[in-house]
Amino acid sequence: MSYLFTSESVSEGHPDKVADQISDALIDHFLAFDKDSKVACETLVTTGLVMLAGEVKSSAYLDVQEIARNVIEKIGYTKSEYQFDSKSCAVISAIHEQSADINRGIDRAIPEEQGAGDQGMMFGYATKETENLMPLALELSHRILIELAALRRENNDIKYLRPDAKSQVTIEYGDDNKPKKITAIVVSTQHDEFDVDDTKMLAKIKTDIVDLLIPRVKKGLSTELQSLFNDDIAYHINPTGKFVIGGPHGDTGL
Questions:
Q1: Does 243 reside within a domain?
Q2: pTM above the 0.85 mark?
Protein backbone atom coordinates (compact mmCIF):
# COMPACT_ATOMS: atom_id res chain seq x y z
CA MET A 1 0.00 0.00 0.00
CA SER A 2 1.45 3.37 -1.01
CA TYR A 3 1.60 6.25 1.46
CA LEU A 4 2.70 9.87 1.78
CA PHE A 5 5.47 11.22 4.01
CA THR A 6 5.88 14.95 4.69
CA SER A 7 8.62 16.97 6.37
CA GLU A 8 9.14 20.69 6.78
CA SER A 9 12.08 22.99 7.42
CA VAL A 10 12.49 26.63 8.41
CA SER A 11 15.10 29.10 7.18
CA GLU A 12 17.87 30.78 9.12
CA GLY A 13 15.66 33.88 9.27
CA HIS A 14 12.70 32.13 10.90
CA PRO A 15 12.18 33.65 14.39
CA ASP A 16 12.72 30.39 16.29
CA LYS A 17 15.82 29.64 14.23
CA VAL A 18 17.19 33.14 14.86
CA ALA A 19 16.85 32.51 18.60
CA ASP A 20 18.52 29.09 18.25
CA GLN A 21 21.49 30.53 16.38
CA ILE A 22 22.07 33.26 18.96
CA SER A 23 21.98 30.75 21.82
CA ASP A 24 24.31 28.43 19.89
CA ALA A 25 26.74 31.28 19.24
CA LEU A 26 26.87 32.17 22.93
CA ILE A 27 27.68 28.57 23.87
CA ASP A 28 30.33 28.31 21.13
CA HIS A 29 32.04 31.51 22.28
CA PHE A 30 32.07 30.53 25.95
CA LEU A 31 33.58 27.14 25.11
CA ALA A 32 36.12 28.73 22.77
CA PHE A 33 37.56 30.80 25.62
CA ASP A 34 36.95 28.34 28.45
CA LYS A 35 36.48 24.69 27.53
CA ASP A 36 35.08 23.97 31.00
CA SER A 37 32.28 26.50 30.69
CA LYS A 38 28.84 25.39 31.81
CA VAL A 39 26.21 27.23 29.78
CA ALA A 40 22.42 27.02 29.76
CA CYS A 41 20.92 29.92 27.85
CA GLU A 42 17.70 30.85 26.07
CA THR A 43 16.98 33.61 23.58
CA LEU A 44 13.74 35.41 22.78
CA VAL A 45 13.42 37.62 19.70
CA THR A 46 10.54 39.91 18.83
CA THR A 47 9.97 43.32 17.26
CA GLY A 48 13.13 45.35 17.84
CA LEU A 49 14.20 43.25 20.82
CA VAL A 50 16.49 40.38 21.76
CA MET A 51 16.28 38.98 25.29
CA LEU A 52 19.11 36.75 26.52
CA ALA A 53 18.57 34.71 29.68
CA GLY A 54 20.15 31.75 31.36
CA GLU A 55 22.84 30.51 33.69
CA VAL A 56 26.58 30.40 33.08
CA LYS A 57 29.65 29.23 34.98
CA SER A 58 32.78 30.26 33.09
CA SER A 59 36.09 32.06 33.50
CA ALA A 60 35.43 33.84 30.19
CA TYR A 61 33.82 37.26 29.94
CA LEU A 62 32.03 37.90 26.66
CA ASP A 63 30.25 40.82 25.03
CA VAL A 64 27.04 38.84 24.59
CA GLN A 65 25.24 41.79 22.99
CA GLU A 66 27.85 42.00 20.24
CA ILE A 67 27.68 38.25 19.64
CA ALA A 68 23.90 38.45 19.24
CA ARG A 69 24.13 41.39 16.83
CA ASN A 70 26.75 39.62 14.72
CA VAL A 71 24.49 36.58 14.35
CA ILE A 72 21.52 38.74 13.35
CA GLU A 73 23.63 40.60 10.79
CA LYS A 74 24.98 37.36 9.30
CA ILE A 75 21.44 36.02 8.90
CA GLY A 76 20.47 39.11 6.93
CA TYR A 77 18.37 41.29 9.21
CA THR A 78 20.16 44.50 8.29
CA LYS A 79 17.37 46.88 7.26
CA SER A 80 15.27 49.02 9.60
CA GLU A 81 12.17 48.34 7.50
CA TYR A 82 12.23 44.76 8.82
CA GLN A 83 11.40 46.18 12.29
CA PHE A 84 14.22 43.96 13.56
CA ASP A 85 17.79 44.63 12.50
CA SER A 86 21.25 44.01 13.89
CA LYS A 87 22.21 47.62 14.52
CA SER A 88 19.06 49.11 16.05
CA CYS A 89 17.42 46.26 17.97
CA ALA A 90 17.71 46.31 21.75
CA VAL A 91 19.69 43.44 23.26
CA ILE A 92 18.94 42.80 26.92
CA SER A 93 20.98 40.26 28.89
CA ALA A 94 19.63 38.58 32.02
CA ILE A 95 22.32 35.89 32.04
CA HIS A 96 23.55 35.13 35.55
CA GLU A 97 25.71 32.69 37.52
CA GLN A 98 24.83 29.01 37.44
CA SER A 99 23.07 27.70 40.53
CA ALA A 100 25.51 26.24 43.05
CA ASP A 101 23.05 23.42 43.69
CA ILE A 102 23.01 22.43 40.02
CA ASN A 103 26.78 22.81 39.76
CA ARG A 104 27.24 20.23 42.55
CA GLY A 105 25.93 17.60 40.17
CA ILE A 106 28.15 18.41 37.21
CA ASP A 107 31.49 19.54 38.65
CA ARG A 108 33.06 16.51 40.29
CA ALA A 109 36.68 15.89 41.25
CA ILE A 110 36.46 12.44 39.67
CA PRO A 111 35.40 12.79 35.99
CA GLU A 112 33.72 9.37 36.00
CA GLU A 113 31.28 10.63 38.64
CA GLN A 114 30.24 13.69 36.68
CA GLY A 115 26.50 14.17 36.40
CA ALA A 116 24.29 16.33 34.20
CA GLY A 117 22.57 19.64 34.84
CA ASP A 118 19.42 18.46 33.10
CA GLN A 119 17.95 15.44 31.37
CA GLY A 120 15.87 14.76 28.30
CA MET A 121 14.19 11.90 26.47
CA MET A 122 14.64 11.66 22.70
CA PHE A 123 13.06 9.22 20.29
CA GLY A 124 13.88 8.73 16.64
CA TYR A 125 15.72 6.62 14.12
CA ALA A 126 18.23 6.92 11.30
CA THR A 127 17.39 6.12 7.69
CA LYS A 128 19.56 5.12 4.74
CA GLU A 129 17.56 7.36 2.39
CA THR A 130 20.19 10.10 2.55
CA GLU A 131 23.91 10.36 3.27
CA ASN A 132 23.26 12.24 6.51
CA LEU A 133 20.78 9.54 7.62
CA MET A 134 17.81 11.91 7.73
CA PRO A 135 14.43 11.41 5.99
CA LEU A 136 14.50 12.35 2.31
CA ALA A 137 11.57 14.76 2.62
CA LEU A 138 13.42 16.66 5.34
CA GLU A 139 16.65 16.71 3.35
CA LEU A 140 14.86 18.18 0.33
CA SER A 141 13.10 20.75 2.51
CA HIS A 142 16.48 21.81 3.90
CA ARG A 143 18.00 22.06 0.42
CA ILE A 144 15.18 24.24 -0.83
CA LEU A 145 15.86 26.77 1.92
CA ILE A 146 19.63 26.59 1.50
CA GLU A 147 19.28 27.50 -2.17
CA LEU A 148 16.67 30.15 -1.37
CA ALA A 149 19.10 31.79 1.07
CA ALA A 150 21.84 31.63 -1.57
CA LEU A 151 19.58 33.40 -4.08
CA ARG A 152 18.80 36.06 -1.48
CA ARG A 153 22.47 36.71 -0.73
CA GLU A 154 23.42 36.77 -4.41
CA ASN A 155 20.66 39.36 -4.96
CA ASN A 156 20.91 38.79 -8.68
CA ASP A 157 18.20 36.55 -10.16
CA ILE A 158 15.74 37.33 -7.34
CA LYS A 159 16.11 40.73 -5.68
CA TYR A 160 13.09 40.92 -3.36
CA LEU A 161 13.75 38.10 -0.88
CA ARG A 162 13.82 38.63 2.88
CA PRO A 163 15.31 36.22 5.49
CA ASP A 164 12.21 34.45 6.85
CA ALA A 165 11.00 31.33 5.02
CA LYS A 166 9.56 27.82 5.38
CA SER A 167 9.48 24.81 3.11
CA GLN A 168 7.64 21.50 3.09
CA VAL A 169 8.01 18.46 0.85
CA THR A 170 5.61 15.52 0.47
CA ILE A 171 6.83 12.27 -1.08
CA GLU A 172 4.79 9.27 -2.18
CA TYR A 173 6.23 5.88 -1.23
CA GLY A 174 5.39 2.55 -2.82
CA ASP A 175 4.63 -0.85 -1.29
CA ASP A 176 8.38 -1.47 -1.09
CA ASN A 177 8.83 1.64 1.10
CA LYS A 178 10.88 3.29 -1.64
CA PRO A 179 10.20 6.89 -2.73
CA LYS A 180 8.23 7.02 -6.00
CA LYS A 181 7.71 10.72 -6.59
CA ILE A 182 7.32 14.13 -5.01
CA THR A 183 3.64 15.03 -4.85
CA ALA A 184 3.72 18.49 -3.24
CA ILE A 185 6.13 21.29 -2.36
CA VAL A 186 5.31 24.24 -0.13
CA VAL A 187 7.50 27.35 -0.05
CA SER A 188 6.57 30.37 2.03
CA THR A 189 9.12 33.13 1.66
CA GLN A 190 9.19 36.62 3.10
CA HIS A 191 9.60 39.31 0.46
CA ASP A 192 9.74 43.03 -0.22
CA GLU A 193 6.53 44.74 -1.27
CA PHE A 194 7.79 45.22 -4.81
CA ASP A 195 4.42 45.77 -6.54
CA VAL A 196 1.25 47.61 -5.56
CA ASP A 197 -0.76 44.74 -7.03
CA ASP A 198 -0.66 41.75 -4.65
CA THR A 199 -1.85 39.38 -7.38
CA LYS A 200 1.00 40.32 -9.72
CA MET A 201 3.47 40.14 -6.86
CA LEU A 202 2.40 36.61 -5.93
CA ALA A 203 2.47 35.48 -9.56
CA LYS A 204 6.07 36.72 -9.90
CA ILE A 205 7.14 34.90 -6.73
CA LYS A 206 5.49 31.65 -7.86
CA THR A 207 7.22 31.82 -11.24
CA ASP A 208 10.62 32.50 -9.68
CA ILE A 209 10.31 29.66 -7.17
CA VAL A 210 9.34 27.09 -9.80
CA ASP A 211 11.59 28.30 -12.64
CA LEU A 212 14.66 29.51 -10.72
CA LEU A 213 14.78 27.95 -7.26
CA ILE A 214 13.65 24.37 -7.95
CA PRO A 215 16.10 23.82 -10.87
CA ARG A 216 18.95 24.92 -8.58
CA VAL A 217 17.82 22.42 -5.97
CA LYS A 218 17.61 19.61 -8.54
CA LYS A 219 21.05 20.42 -9.92
CA GLY A 220 22.67 19.51 -6.62
CA LEU A 221 20.95 16.12 -6.39
CA SER A 222 21.79 12.70 -7.75
CA THR A 223 20.10 11.50 -10.94
CA GLU A 224 17.98 9.13 -8.86
CA LEU A 225 16.64 11.94 -6.68
CA GLN A 226 16.15 14.26 -9.63
CA SER A 227 13.79 11.67 -11.11
CA LEU A 228 11.39 12.18 -8.18
CA PHE A 229 10.55 15.63 -9.53
CA ASN A 230 7.72 15.61 -12.05
CA ASP A 231 5.24 17.83 -13.89
CA ASP A 232 2.39 16.88 -11.54
CA ILE A 233 3.90 18.33 -8.37
CA ALA A 234 1.42 20.57 -6.55
CA TYR A 235 3.28 23.78 -5.71
CA HIS A 236 1.93 25.89 -2.86
CA ILE A 237 3.87 29.15 -2.92
CA ASN A 238 3.08 31.76 -0.25
CA PRO A 239 -0.40 30.25 0.27
CA THR A 240 -1.65 33.25 2.27
CA GLY A 241 -0.98 35.46 -0.76
CA LYS A 242 1.48 37.86 0.87
CA PHE A 243 4.45 37.56 3.24
CA VAL A 244 6.00 41.01 3.73
CA ILE A 245 5.74 41.14 7.53
CA GLY A 246 7.92 38.34 8.87
CA GLY A 247 10.86 37.43 11.03
CA PRO A 248 10.75 38.36 14.72
CA HIS A 249 8.51 41.33 13.86
CA GLY A 250 5.82 39.03 12.50
CA ASP A 251 6.18 36.21 15.01
CA THR A 252 8.08 36.06 18.30
CA GLY A 253 10.82 33.43 18.33
CA LEU A 254 12.16 31.45 21.26
A1: no
A2: yes
